């Protein structure tokens, strides 16, 4: 019987090629879009799932308050926190401490290798986390000073070895940056999974920091550069443990007497580190959880819209198939057999659509991966992504249930026709069925309008951030990384200034500056900064930038009062630098009434008196997600900073080659690497830009599929009213009046959808915009434009069928009367 059902189903689908093609197209597009989005969602949700004890791992976060105001909401804290908590609380099974080491340059003999992301980690790290060693002992690999662990990729890149030869690398030496002491390789580990919020290629033992930074990295309650992770015992309650932390703060910090700030500690589950981090000084790879869940909702909407289309398009053909049902029932077919027949058509069409969607997804995979810059694949939905094999089972179950439900309603509706009424020609449409179909169309357009409004808001915010005046100019700014492998000596400052002067002789170079810090990066902070002579017991917190005297002119940052830096302000010993320039936010934070009144005043920084010689305007040092920072600028140089050159781009390749030539002459043995400041700054918005592209593309698909659904409902309704249209034409109704009559009901549905969608969209975009310190207003006209667009799409969709019906010869529709 099933074989017969499938044979008849195939014949019916083949016979009605246009109907089948439209229906199949909607399903294929919907399922393909859903599969592509689910890959992205699965990848983002799978971060750190490979960690064996993920449900017991937490990282310590730290909020700092001064004068009752939150001054830092971060993931870094003091060196002693992890080990002290592990000592004080029996609920904690273990801990590990990490310090970011930036991008290290590795040296072997005379060979220099590209920079590599790296961490200083303690001896517990490799046993604490699931980063397996291929060779080496995880318990001892990070125990001794100057110990080094490489990933497999780096081992192969640096030594050219195969996996079978990894053991021969143990005990061999490498050098890091300018360090003259060798680092001994104690382990080779598997490459870090892409879905790890901690990304690195080199690990260096934490004990090495004691040699280079001093003992404070072990016992300080003030220096704050460490990340701490805790592993709780299986029976431990994280919430109950966190409630003990206020007593911990009072015991060790005694209010703000130790660090100058009131310290509050919290636990963040490792599961949330990637998608739910709004912290400063983030060590890991993070993304927006709101954006990921929004994408999941879009995937669900698109799939539902596709299946709703099948329902509407299938029921649109009910008049054509009514007589078929009547004849089958007269011939002895039961309702169950008819339902089986129609369900087999649904299953056949959906399965064919699923096969085509899988093929199309594989074909489009490289394009999707390029857009999101992530290693996505269908394997993420079949066991390698979020939820493992459970995800695959859930997807199979969801598709099976969706296929059944989308086919069951049309099958049930068609099989319920009364044979006598159909064959006598007195069959009438069901008011209940019409209500169901209209409700489905309202749902489709509600989802579509929400996506249209969301897309408008996302792109307006991105455009706002792109065009907003940041307070400095970074157009045509070429930035070169400083010479890390040139040693600092008494001639360093002269060499830096001579290099800048030489480069400025090039015709295409307009200006040049050197700085330790750059825009877009989180700046270092200093706490307990106070005005000299102030009666305040506790100071304030400011950020710091080290720049040369050409920095403000090169980046066109406006001087509001006082003067710029002079050559005499700088000193090779940063502790002897006295004169500073501050921005307007610092002036206000220190309590000076105006920029002019701040010039000549003094404040303490690291316990040393500094004088304000100039005040510059505020500017957005980071993206518009962050508020403007109070910044203190110091005339200080290092080899590890950056050189920025304002250039003409008419002959870019030649200009870069000339600057490279000068760089290699002044700093031999260093890698010449460069980037453009605007491109680097815009990387802060990369995730938002990807989110905008994805939502726009899939919103377009959702609207397209919803329009097919409206097309189906209009076909059904107009077919039901064919004789009414014929009568009206005979009585003199014009084509325009008939088109208006037929379109009116559908426009009502779209207007209802707009009313329902508007508050939903407003809430959703408000939540997304809350992540930005500077954002657009949600204007009423955006909702109006989205509504007009939705109505226009609906009109185009319905008018095709309406005009066709209005132009039909009434004789054809009335001759059966």
UniProtKB/TrEMBL annotation:
Signal peptide positions (record): none
Gene source species: Larkinella rosea
InterPro entries: ABC3_permease_C (IPR003838), MacB_PCD (IPR025857), Macrolide_Exporter_MacB (IPR050250)
PROSITE patterns associated with the record: PROKAR_LIPOPROTEIN
Localization annotation: Cell membrane
Domain ABC3 transporter permease C-terminal: 297-411, 697-810
Protein name: ABC transporter permease
Residue ranges of domain MacB-like periplasmic core in the record: 20-245, 449-635
Cellular component aspect of the GO annotation: plasma membrane
Membrane-related topology note: Multi-pass membrane protein
Regions that span the bilayer: 21-41, 291-313, 347-368, 388-420, 440-459, 697-719, 746-766, 778-800
MF (Gene Ontology): transmembrane transporter activity
Keywords: Cell membrane, Membrane, Transmembrane, Transmembrane helix
